[in-house]
Structure formats: structure tokens, C-alpha cells
Specification:
The chain has one domain: Cathepsin D, subunit A, domain 1. 13% of the residues lie in helices and 44% in strands. The chain contains 3 helices and 10 strands. The strands form 2 sheets. The chain has a 6-stranded mixed beta barrel. A 3-stranded antiparallel β-sheet has the order 1-10-9, with no helix packed on it. A hairpin with an 8-residue loop joins strand 6 and strand 7. The longest helix is centred in the N-terminal third of the chain and has 9 residues. 29% of the residues are buried.
Length: 147
């Protein structure tokens, strides 16, 4: 099982990801002779408290995609009033420890929200983590994501 082991940062477990339109959306863009935007690289915090994966709105906008849905969600900072977030059909790639060992999820709904002001570009949520194995070691200052 491929894996990547990284050191924790002062902000927590940060992992580099690439976001792109989902593979089915890329195929539809090809068939419509539309250009496929290049992937966007970002640093996401591994967040076991996040149900879904979220990217900063500015990252998502760089891909020029249209939202597929609007999701109303509660966060610790919204209280009882839900906040509306656009959802996008995307693929996500996590670079592996060696060439050819990366992890690509072809199609996953990703929310867009304001995160850059909090010092992160995205949250890698349980929708992705549920597909792999996460080992967090505070004692060694490392985490491993196996897929």
C-alpha cells in the first residue's frame, strides 16, 4: 500500500494536493472542445473534524469551474445559522513519496470557502480520509497517509 509520511507543522498536518476538474468533467470539456485548466497546487491541512474536503474559493476560481450544487453547512464559527458553500466536481491528487506512487481520486465533490485568511488553502476531510489510512503521531511529530 503506497503511503506518504510528512512532518507536522505548527499549523498541524499539512499535505500538498493538486486540484483539477473531475475526470468525467475533463472528458466532457474535451468533447466540447473547451480548454482544460491546468491543475492548481495547494497546501491542505488534514482535518478529521471536517466531513468533506474544502478548498479556498480563490483556488477553485482559478480553475474557472461552475458549481454543481450549493450546500448549507454548520461550522464552529457559524453557530446555528448555516453558511452556503458552492460545491464543485473535481479530482484531487496527493503526491506520493516517490514518483508514480501518488494518489488520485478521479471525482469528488469539493466545497469552496474562505480559508486563506486562516493560514491554510484547504481542508482534507473525512470524505478523502475514509478511503485511506491516517496515522498521526504527536510523539514523533509526523503523520502518514496510506492509500
Amino acid at each position: 500500500m503506497p503511503s506518504v509520511t510528512l512532518g507536522n507543522t505548527p499549523k498541524g498536518p499539512i499535505i500538498q494536493v493538486q486540484l483539477s476538474p473531475s475526470f468525467p468533467l475533463q472528458e466532457a470539456m474535451r468533447q466540447a472542445n473547451q480548454p482544460i485548466p491546468p491543475p492548481v497546487t495547494a497546501n491542505f491541512i488534514v482535518d478529521t473534524g471536517a466531513t468533506g474536503t474544502m478548498a479556498d474559493t480563490r483556488l477553485v476560481m482559478r480553475l474557472g469551474l461552475n458549481p454543481i450544487n450549493t450546500i448549507y453547512m454548520h461550522t464552529p464559527s457559524t453557530g446555528i445559522t448555516p453558511v452556503a458553500c458552492f460545491q464543485f466536481d473535481m479530482s484531487i491528487q496527493i503526491t506520493g513519496a516517490s514518483p508514480g506512487t501518488g494518489w488520485t481520486i478521479d471525482s469528488i465533490p469539493i466545497l469552496a470557502g474562505t480559508l486563506a485568511s486562516r493560514g491554510v488553502e484547504g481542508l482534507l476531510g473525512r470524505d478523502v480520509l475514509d478511503l485511506g489510512i491516517l496515522i498521526y503521531s504527536g510523539a514523533t511529530g509526523q503523520f502518514t497517509l496510506a492509500y
